[in-house]
């Protein structure tokens, strides 16, 4: 469900709640003013806790419906624009790391691009905090930094 439909449903729920509270309050006020308020037909002392509970319930429904939509709207990030800031070889290495679920061995990258190039690019990315180099046997595992893993999911 898109954000506009959810907002419409939320507005309808809130308007219905306000109408229900207003109508019940008016009904109770008229019966009290006429002197016909009998707790056997209308439990007036229970109206306040009932409407308070109903208000909390309506509020939680509104929060439940809107919170995922709002967080999804904030989360949209153009990863292509971020990758365009990198050099072509850096971009390709980051793409390979992302394809391998956030980590790849340095030796695997070296066979594709050359040892010296890969070493220099990885050092540059490591100095900028984009990747982490973790010793793994006779080679290294290159891992994408946690904040970038979440970005490229």
Layout of secondary structure:
Layout: H1 3-34, H2 47-75, H3 79-83, H4 88-99, E1 103-105, H5 106-113, H6 115-127, E2 131-136, E3 139-144, H7 146-151
Antiparallel strand pairs: 1-3, 2-3
Helix pairs in contact: 1-2, 5-6
Report on the structure:
- The chain is mostly helical.
- It folds into two domains: 3-75; 79-151, Winged helix-like DNA-binding domain superfamily/Winged helix DNA-binding domain (Arc Repressor Mutant, subunit A, Orthogonal Bundle), CATH 1.10.10.10.
- It has seven helices and three strands.
- The chain has helices at 3-34, 47-75, 79-83, 88-99, 106-113, 115-127, 146-151; strands at 103-105, 131-136, 139-144.
- Strands 1-3-2 form a three-stranded antiparallel sheet.
- Helix 5 (106-113) packs across helix 6 (115-127).
- The longest helix is centred in the first third of the chain and has 32 residues, at 3-34.
- The protein is rod-shaped and about 95 Å long.
Considering the chains and any ligands shown, give keywords for the structure.
single chain, Arc Repressor Mutant, subunit A, mainly alpha, 153 residues, 2 domains
Side by side, the strands of the main sheet go 1-3-2
| Alpha-beta content class | mainly alpha
Distance between the termini: 22 Å
Total individual domains: 2
Could you tell me the radius of gyration in angstroms?
A: 30 Å
Assign a percent range to the helix content. 55-70%
Estimated share of beta-strand residues: 5-15%
